[in-house]
Amino acid sequence: MSGIYIHIPFCKQACHYCDFHFSTSMKKKDDMVLALAKEIGMRKPFDSVQDDNIIETIYFGGGTPSVLSNEEINFLISEVYKNYKVIENPEITLEANPDDLSAERILELSRSPINRLSIGIQSFYEEDLKMMNRAHNSAEAKKCLEDATKYFDNISLDLIYGIPGMSDEMWRQNIQTALNFGIPHISSYALTVEPKTALSKLIQTGKIAEPQDEAASNHFMILVEMLQNNGFIHYELSNFGKENYFSKNNSAYWLGKKYIGIGPSAHSYDGEKRGWNIANNSLYIKAIQNNELPIETEILTISDRYNEYIMTGLRTIWGVSLERIEKEFGLEYLNYLKKQAQKFLNDDLLSIENNILKPTPKGKFLTDGIASDLFYLEE
Is 319 helix (H, G, I), strand (E, B) or coil? Predict the structure, then answer.
């Protein structure tokens, strides 16, 4: 076992681009915390002393986990320790929004078991934050980083690129502002328009311009260049870390380690099957109160596992090991991969070094599309 992910399905307000599962009503928060604690116990493996079942990371995601009080967060962490064997210094991450991180709150958190903050900045420009309907403003974004860096060494922040109207220069300034705070980890994503989101409706009605692929591609190249010039390692398509500051939690997903997802909509993986909890707060709480796990599972076929390895491997610094493909999936899959990859090798979008298949700098922005062309599709 590698990690426990705890989904906190509450937010103060809905960001226009978000399609994650959450509620802006806090009415069920107390019941939810009790249900999360109970599920932690219900999911306890039968033999939690095996090395395989040792917890290395605890990650509070959402939603906005920082809407929980410190007491609630500490209570959930104590439930993990009560039910599982945990390594001596686990990485314990809290996703947080700047408007929840007052100086007092940061000080409190620094005295708790939380040792890593992942802060949803998204942009330092007021107009971007308003367009995305973020709950914080630019001044709060800067103030919380100023305070957080006094008490936390291990901080990650999120930035969004490809925002309509954001010039290359504005994007450079966003990155530079983050660098000025000495942050050791940055996660950065292109603004994507998900169906049924407020952003999708605003674009359809012409109130906001549609994000342009060319602008996003330029922003991505600027991001890679600026961060690599400042000592960051581009270890996953959307993630950059200084040495020793990679996200252990997320790296475990990409390296195919096992994890348990706690809470509504949370996903789990045990190496052979994937499971996901119901994405409905009331039904989740009701099921847990009735001692039922509201989870659906699917057994992954060999093709599913091959496709997942291709997708995650190509997105990371570790690439796709041709040796592992042959060993785990067989010669048929290896020959298929080589055949499918040939056109990308010819176009200098993929390369093979030391038997590892990786995107070239030119191919990085196109990684997800390339991966889908390498998938093995069962008839």
Answer: coil
Give the CA count within 13 Å in the CB-facing half-sphere of 149: 15
> CB within 8 A of 371, min separation 6: which ones?
310, 311, 314, 315
Residues in the chain: 379
Return the C-alpha torsion angle 264, 269, 275, 281, nearest 10: 0
Q: End-to-end CA distance of the chain, in Å? A: 33
Amino acid at 10: F
Q: What is the residue-wise DSSP string for 292-316?
A: ---EEEEEPPHHHHHHHHHHHHHHB
pLDDT of 116-138, one tens digit each?
999 999 999 999 998 888 889 99
DSSP reduced 3-state for 324: helix
> Which residues on adjacent β-strands are paired with residue 233?
241
The CA-based angle 200-203-206, given to 5 degrees, is 150
Residue 49: its pLDDT value, please? Answer: 43
Rounded Cα gap, residues 170 and 165, in angstroms? 9
Quick one: which of 52, 69, 61, 175 has its CA closest to 116?
61
The gap from C-alpha 274 to its chain's centroid, in whole angstroms, comes to 17
Query: In Å, what is the CA distance from 227 to each residue of 172, 230, 239, 248, 273?
Result: 10, 5, 10, 20, 36
Secondary structure (DSSP) of 36-84: HHHHHHHT--S-TTSGGGEEEEEEEEES-GGGS-HHHHHHHHHHHHHHS
Q: What is the pLDDT of residues 288-335, one digit of tens each?
A: 999 999 999 999 999 999 999 999 999 999 999 999 999 999 999 999
